[in-house]
Amino acid sequence: MRSPIVWAPARIAAVGAHAPEGVLTNADFERRLDTSDEWIVKRTGIRRRHVAADGQYTSHLAIAAVDDLLAHNPGVHLEHVDYLIVGSSTPDYAYPSVSAILQAHYRLPKTVGALDISTACAGFAYGINLAAGLIGTRQVKRVLVVVADTLTRSVDYTDRSTAVLFGDGGGAALIEYSAEPAIFGMDAGADGNGGKFLYRTGLRTEINGVEDASRLLRQEGSAVYRWVMENIPAAIERILERAGMELGDIDWFVPHSANLRMIEALDKRLPFPVERTLFSIEEYGNTSAVSIPLALVPAVRDGRVKPGQRLLLMGFGGGLVMAGNVVLWT
Ligand code: ACO
Fold first, then answer.
1. Number of structural domains, the chain?
2. Banded model confidence at residue 1, pLDDT cuts 50, 70, 90
3. Which of 174, 227, 302, 327 has the highest count of CB atoms within 10 angstroms of its CB?
4. What's the CATH number where 119 sits?
5. Model confidence, pTM
6. Phi, psi (5° rounding) for residue 201?
């Protein structure tokens, strides 16, 4: 391994995740739309997705994910957290932010930084990169990065090309100072020209000359697919270059779970073994910012991910945006 160019004196100290109890199966969609279990599984790999209940919003899933992190890591106490970063494209409100809701829920001091980031499916990797930067510049010692999304609230259930894809959930990671660097190669980017392929309108209802006042998620799936295949392998090369590593140094690849067929195509392109790739798409669908923790947390808990191993995290999605890094598991 070469010396890393980009690294931070920080590590992931604890992780948690949560998916709501309600489940929608492919058979449920067969009853509602002109679709089939066979089409969905063959084109996407998705079998089920978990759906927030009535009255359950993004902040509730965020809190459930943090509670899961605390329950599995008895040594972690939130009073030691200096900063909250929440990644979500489906926050409860425009403001207050989800991070401010968390600050109030956990009765954290008013001196805790609270930042929501709008980075769609890249939210987990973007959040870790920002946390590593805050810690690296000695502003803070511990950052709680939380991701939560309720995309099923923004989906058009009459559109079979998007309705079957998305699910809800929450994830959390405590990033803390570590004299031994454990986050490397942080990289981020965006391509706003591609926003028209995956968007949800808000106060402004016109996009690229198209009027869409529905405020529902719209996606041109094949254009996004092509964009991912054109841009993500190059982003991974940049991350590895900045981390001073080769693909052969990576033990686990954890890409955003948007589509199993696309993950397999990325693995083939890199190339990287599918058996060393973690994904959450089959059970949870595309959970946006949450798909990486929903893949990572079970693998940490069942012992597949071990201390000393290197994980390549790669998020990408609506906007279009991308972010990634290499994490040394400690
Ligand atoms: N059931 C049956 N048929 C369907 C369905 C469905 N659920 N959905 C679409 N079809 C049909 C289409 O109508 C089309 O029919 P036609 O040929 O008669 O016109 C045909 O299937 C092919 O449609 P495509 O959109 O070309 O299908 P594709 O194979 O590209 O799969 C998909 C679509 C799954 C969306 C895929 O393009 C994809 O996963 N793209 C990437 C998505 C992604 O990465 N998003 C980024 C992250 S998400 C975020 O940030 C929120």
1. 2
2. confident
3. 327
4. 3.40.47.10
5. 0.97
6. -75, 160
